[in-house]
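Support reply, case 0932

Customer input (verbatim):
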Amino acid sequence: MAVVEAAMRAILAAVEASATVTDEQLSMLNFLFEKNLERALRILDQGGVQRVTSEPSHRTVFQVTGESKGAAPCYLCFPDHYCSCQSFYFDVVAKSEQIYCKHQLAAKLANALHMCKEVTMSDEELAYLLLEC
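Our regenerated output:
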């Protein structure tokens, strides 16, 4: 897992530096994340990633839209550590079959590509948002 995370960091650094994803990078990401990459890219194409920053603390969390029927309209996501979706719990935590869920991948890619919708709220509003999950 550490090797995959190191590869992901290197790819994201290159993506952020160029503000684009090459075919070679997409191929590497596809090798690492398979089905979740395709789903994450669909979320990106739909503009489904918001970076929420609170003031004055500058804490940041991502809200990522769901694409499954009957799913929550969006999930709260800390790209390196947590997502409020069921896939994160089952595939990442319980089964250890994936390193990241599609929402975490979408948040990481959107952040690197500067494709996040920016939302600012107060620290108090962010606290309430976190409590709703």
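We compared this against your earlier run and they match. Two observations from our side: The longest helix spans residues 2-18. Strands lie at 49-55, 60-65, 74-78, 82-83, 117-122. Please reopen the case if you see a mismatch on your end.
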